[in-house]
Amino acid sequence: MFIHGVGRPSGLMNEVLRKLGGRPQGYFKGDLVEYTGKTMEHLGKTLYEQEVMEGPRKGEKVHTYRPPTGPDPFVEQQRRERNEQQEQFRRLREE
Hints:
Blueprint: H1 11-19, E1 25-28, E2 31-42, E3 45-52, E4 61-64, H2 73-94
Antiparallel strand pairs: 1-2, 2-3, 3-4
């Protein structure tokens, strides 16, 4: 259900795939993967299992912290914290 070469599937596209009975897709180290729906906890974070669909690792299971609906929430949190720190440093320089 994913057209190869069109780009990375968006969260909206993955929602449509899920409603049509397909599995959400994405990329892992340059290879197309599909989320299997299996999850596990690791160090207090949720890991999502994916199956590699192309390339030399085809058929292998890999794991990622990125949920099928969008970017990794922990990366987003780190980005927000960094931006807040940068803003605080700017304010200190202006004083």
